[in-house]
Amino acid sequence: MPVPMDTIGSGGADTSSSASTSEVQQSAQLINRCLFNDRESIDLAHKLSINSTHSGVCSGTDDKDYPSTSCLPLVTDVKRVPLPPELIEQFDHMQCNCLIGLFPEIGRAWLTVDSDIFVWRYDQGDDLSYFDGLKETILSVALVQPKPGIFRQHVKYLLALTTPLDIVILGVSFSGDDINKDMHLLSEPLFTLTTDSTYLMQTIATPNGRIFSGGRDGCLYEVEYQAGGSWFRGDCQKVNHSQSRFSFLIPSMMSQLWRSENDAISQITVDETRNILYTRSETGSIGVFDLGNAGKSTSRVTLVSLDSIIRKARSISVGIEPSNLSEIVHIAPITLQESRYLNLVAITQAGIRLYFVVTSSMYSGSGLTAQGGDVRPNGLYLVHIRLPPGFTNSSVQRPTSIHAAYYKAGSLLLASTTGDDATLWYVNGDMFAFDNILKENHRNFPLDGRSWAISQLASAPLSQLAVARLPSNTSSLGIPPDPPIHVLQHLQQPSEYVVVTSQGCHIFYKLRPVDQLRALLEKTTDPNSETIEEFFRLYNKGEGVCCCIILAISPKETTNRSICDRATSVFLQHGGIHAERVATHRGGEGDYPVAAHQHSITPLSPIQNVSMAPSSGIKRFGGAPVAFSTPMPGSLQHQQQVQQQQQQQMNKNNLFQQQQQRQQQSNTTATSTNLRMNGENGFYSERQQGLYKVFARFVRPIWEGNVIEENFVVEDGRKRSFAVSRPTIEVVTTILEDLKNLKTFMTKYCLVPANIRDMNQLLYRGMQQRHHNTSAHMSQSPVNLHHMEQQKKLCAETCATELTFINQLYQLNDVTIQVLGLWRLILHHQLHVIIDNLDQNTQSTLRTMVFHELVTNGKQICCALVNGLVSQFMNDHSTIGALSCQLREICPDFYSPDDLTCAQATELLNQVRTSLPGRRKEQLEEALQLLMSIAKSVNLPSICQQLQSVQYFEGVVELCMKAANLRDAENLALKFHYTFYGCIDETLDIDPAFKSAHFARLECYKCITDMLSDLLVAAESHPQAPSVPTKPGPPQLNNSTKTSTNVQPLTPKNAQIHAETSLQIALKSSDELLHITLYDWMLHKNMIEQITRVESPFIEKFLILRSEVNGAGATTPSGGNRINDLLWQWYERNGRHLQAAEVLVKLADKVGPERNLIERIELLSRAKVHAKSMTSMTTVANNTGQLLGELEDKIQVSKIQLETLKQLQEYPELRHCVTSLNSQLYDITTIYQEYADQYDLGEIKLQIFEAAGEHNEILIKDLWQNIIEKLISNMDRTIDAMTSSSDLPNIIKHKIIALSKNYANSERYFPLKFLVEYLEKISLGRSWNKIWVIETFLNVGVTTYDLLGIYSQIHAKKDGCWSALGNPHHIIDVINNLLTLYLDDDVTAMNNVSMSSSMTMQQDNNRYKRHIISRSLDLIAMSLMELTSQSIRDVTTNLLISSLQKNQAKFESLRAQL
Questions:
Q1: DSSP letters along 496-510, please?
Q2: N or C: which end of the chain has fewer CB within 10 A?
Q3: Are strands 98-103 and 157-162 parallel, antiparallel or unpaired?
């Protein structure tokens, strides 16, 4: 089974050994600034103050343009190599012409004698090759890099030769395809082409293989060649670009007829970075040709004559004599690597340089406009004139009679001849590369004869170490400018120059700054010598320190320990000088110092970039004079002020002291501000700045580039990408070794406080020197001494800050070494495999990550890479002992001792998979013990997955509990939990230690709960069916089946057992917060039954706290009312009925929409049951009785509330009332006032009166009347008149019956006489059935005897309402009907009475019959007397009398039977 990527190690380093991230990031910012300054060095156009094509500038007229640096060597001694003896003999045979030139691409020189050409290695004078197959004199020679795909591979170069008649192209090959071995010229020409009698005097080749020739006729020709010919074009042809594309069709004899005097082209040069070609004619005219963006086309742009150039030059500087501009001897392109703005430089015979641009739009309103390769030329414009050294100073020798020159990348060589004396001038500005004006050094030395050719040896192809990837936010123009030699001097070899004369080859090298220092150290052992002092004055701002460090740690200098020791001594002596210690002429940072003695430390003005002129009372800011705000010390104005102050001191001593004190405070503030301003850029000393620059230049090739790149391959027709390292392993190794050497050097010489004391003393002496002249007369005054003490204290603080920055760089260097060491190790073990196994987020981050981000913020990425490497070893079943030791040595911050222990434990867990059952338990326990020892830092989620994979679930619980206790030893998490549980106020100021501890414990607990969740899922799952094969054939074995394992599959039954066992182990812990976490998890998993069975001292507190938080409305993991239900259930299971009842009451009383009113009543009923269960316990009998009474009252009121709710539900507009009634329990007063009374709910009012025990006979009757009237009114609105007479009595009947169930036994709230009389009136008024009222009350349960008594009382009142209603004998009629019902035994009559009524009549006991008969006879007699006494009787009355008489007879008969 593969090991998970993030299983190995904790991913963290030891706290004591890991570098502070903030300090590393702060140092990285300074490194980025150093790289920016190196990359964005001042452009040549800015140094020459060029800002427009319409106005030019002249420089070289001031002595500071060519400062004297005679003590520092610029070039090495000249090596002279004579011509081969065979060539000397050839001069004796010369008849027409001879030429000498150089092929720097292959390290060879060439010589033509008439029609023969000889090529030899100029540095040794050997390997002579020749070609004598031509018959005509050779006019020009060019070495060509052939176009690809045309010639065979052994043809490395082409040799183009022109004669008056032909153009011949030869093939060039080398032994073993190595240009350093023997050279061979193919015997047969590859191409031969006629010149049409045009003398081609100059021939060159472009890097893409194009061949251009300049003719004596002033035209530019191109020799085009290709692999195969066509019908219209041959394999090789000549094209005239100065005229028509088809000029080859016109014979040259005819073209001479209309062409003026020819101006032969004497030089052709190409700017390969911009694809622009320039020509120089014999008369000095300069032509410009555009080769197109791709360099494959040609178009003529302009041709500027020498006269036009001279006129423009004279307009720029009228002091230049025309004779100094009369001849241009050399032109050279200025490539994009040197300037983004300038294009061409021309050198005259007087050594004057003329700088040109080829576009008129080089200047915009915001400044110079950079010209990339896509900006095409539209002209040629002179913008600057640079005079040679000594041109305006007669005391300095100046170059004259220049006949040859060479210019490239800021280095100028001038060859002059005066009589028999030949001199070579070398001019270069590398020493002042960071200055904001062009300043150059110059040297001259004699040559053995007139120079015939000058060239710089082609440097080797740039390695990845010399090419730096630009940051993504940098606007690049395609080709970045070359940095100054200071930046690459530890990588780049010195430039080599060759000058060929008739006596041989003169070879010398340009010295890099480090070479200059080495040359000085070879001559002197005194670190304080004048030459060393001069060197550090020139190379300030840490550049001199860089040279010392490079010499001290360079592996090449190990054979010469004396140079290393001297360089270290110089570093210690001069490294403490302040970074901006020297006053200069102009406001630039790198201006050359005024005098040698000014290397002492002198505080600058509080304003940055302000330097003091040596002889004037002005200061310059950006080159502009500005008046001093206070007199400069040493100036005339200052001396007058001092005299005035002395006079004031003699007259007013007190006033003088006050002024003196203010002056000293001002000086103190100025100096303090100066030091702080110098510290704003992060550099406080030369050594600090030098160390940062050295580190920046070491890591420059990779620092701002991506760590990995994507490569794409096509496999089986599908495109697949894989990651590759952008820096190669060779680049990483080289940089790693340099940084290790730097670390060793810093450890020995840069972290010692003694060096800081030396710097402190030097700073203090410099400040004393500054104040000596201005304060010598009062140096002993108390105020001045106090001021000096303040300066000393400030210097000490500055020194301490400087040491802090050096320590930060040391940490950054150490982290970088670890990152590079790790990266190199990974490159040895299949980088793309390791990256592919990382998680997607890590892969995405790594693909976009820049190297410096990996160093400063990529610790997690590095740890993930370490984990991936170790995992790969384990997956390959390789032992990790050696790898772990290697990782501990290479990157201890990313692979700590804990990581090593974790890897050993993981290795044991892997062995468990194949171990025998007897050995399995021992290995698991051993692995667990290892993990327990590092539980504080181990990566729990990953290692727990590994433990689960071998079914060691109990080990997961033990490890997590151990880790939680170690990571929060003071149990701060529990305090945090109880203090801020449920708090949602994020603005509270909480101690981060509490938050961190709480998070650490929860992370440990989560591993346990996740494992338990997985076990529950496994316990519920079923064995899976066999998977469907992906393709026909035998079963495909995956990695897991190839490796045998003794770990049995986890069955659902075993999963359930492991889950229960693990949970019980965790619940036995004394960790309260763990219990809380487990309870929350069990709630989430709906394990209610299991929670109620938990026996723990923490469960009750947990449930109470959760219920309180729920009551407060906070959000909890459980949510809802489940936690509250769980609390009373837990009390119930544990026999604590009183607490259960109290919780149930609280739940019922809790306001909210979670429960409806019915559920609340159920809770109260359950609470009542629990309260009754406690009555047998004498200790709580009193409290229980009181609680029981309260519960009964609550239940009664809640039932009234429920009835109120049911009545209000009938009205849709009262939904809010229903919601309110469901959301809480109300008291009886609230129900009456807010609902019953407000919405006229008579029945509810009646129930409230009955529940409250209140009796008001009149009010009770009104309520019953209101109930009946409201019922009739509602029915009248909802049913029509046809159904009203038959249905309404029944509705009223059912309502009376329903209400009577609550009040039938209470005459106080059920006024029977009133109801009978009131209903009879309604019945009479609506002409309803006369017996429905009787039936209603018989169903209610009123006996016949009682009804007869009630009707007797009603009749006795003799109420006149009956007559008003139309039947004065209505009551007698109803009594008669009641008697008839009682007496009538007819089946039909009995069926008309409801079954319940019939049963009621049958249930009358015989003992009551006598009373009924007696009362009935009395009523009949009284009714007959009343009816018969009337004089006038209608039919109805007569019928009623007859019915009464019949009933009287029946009752008489019944009485006789009794």
A1: EEEEEETTEEEEEEB
A2: C
A3: unpaired
Q: What is the DSSP string of 42-87?
A: PPHHHHTT---SSS-EEE--SGGGS---TTS--BPPPEEEEPPHHH
Question: What tokens were used for 799?
Answer: 């020194």
The alpha carbon of residue 34 and the mean position of all alpha carbons in its chain are separated, in whole angstroms, by: 24
Alpha carbons 43 and 40: distance in angstroms, whole number: 8
Alpha helices in 170-276 (DSSP H): 252-255
**Cα–Cα distance, 1070 to 1067 (Å, whole number):** 8
Instruction: Report pLDDT for 1393.
Output: 39
Query: Which H or E run contains 215?
Result: strand 211-215
pLDDT tens-digit readout, 1127-1152 = 788 888 877 888 888 888 888 888 88
Can you tell me the distance from the alpha carbon of 354 to that of 332, in angstroms, rounded to the nearest whole number?
10
C-alpha atoms less than 13 angstroms from C-alpha of 984 in its C-beta half-sphere:
6
- Rg of the chain taking only CA atoms, in angstroms: 56
The pTM of this model reads 0.69
Q: Which of 1449, 31, 1384 is nearest to 699 (CA)?
A: 31
Q: Report the alpha-carbon distance of residue 132 to residue 185 in Å, rounded.
A: 11
Mean local confidence (pLDDT), 561-584: 72
Measure CA 31 to chain center.
20
> Which stretches within 1304-1434 are classed as H helix?
1312-1325, 1332-1340, 1344-1356, 1361-1364, 1370-1383, 1387-1391, 1395-1402, 1406-1428
> Which tokens go with 1386?
């007819």
What b-and-e string marks burial along 641-655, b requiring 16 or more CB atoms within 10 Å of the CB? ebeeeeeebeeeeee
- How buried is residue 1265: exposed, middle or buried, by Cβ count under 10 Å (0-12/13-18/19+)? middle
Burial tier of 1390 (Cβ tally within 10 Å: 0-12, 13-18, 19+)? middle
Which pLDDT belongs to residue 168?
Answer: 93
The Cα 52–Cα 368 span in angstroms is 8
Q: For the chain, what percentages of helix, strand and coil (3-state, to nearest 5) are there?
A: 50, 15, 35
Measured distance CA(644)–CA(632) in Å, rounded: 16
Residues in the chain: 1458
Q: In whole angstroms, what is the distance from residue 290 CA to residue 301 CA?
A: 6
Q: State phi, psi for 910 to the nearest 5 degrees.
A: -70, -35
Neighbouring CB atoms inside 10 A of 145's CB total: 15
* Beta pairing, strands 451-456 & 328-333: unpaired
Q: Decide: 738 and 808 in contact? Cβ < 8 Å.
A: no
Q: What is the dihedral of CA 371, 377, 381, 384, to 10 degrees?
A: 30
Single-letter code of the amino acid located at 512: R
Distance between CA 1397 and CA 1415 in Å, rounded? 20
pLDDT tens digits for range 254-278: 444 434 457 899 999 999 989 999 9
What is the predicted pLDDT for the residue at 981?
65
3-state secondary structure of 740: helix
When mean pLDDT is compared across 302-316, 988-1002, 1397-1411, 1423-1437, the lowest value belongs to: 1397-1411
* Of residues 256 and 1260, more confidently modeled: 1260
Query: What percentage of the chain exceeds 90 in pLDDT?
Result: 24
Task: Record the tokens describing residue 1344, joined without a space.
Answer: 């016949």
- C-alpha–C-alpha distance, residues 1275 and 1293, integer Å: 13
Q: Round to the nearest angstrom and report the end-to-end CA distance of the chain.
A: 106
Structure tokens, 271: 């700017």
User: How many whole angstroms separate alpha carbon 251 and alpha carbon 254?
Assistant: 6
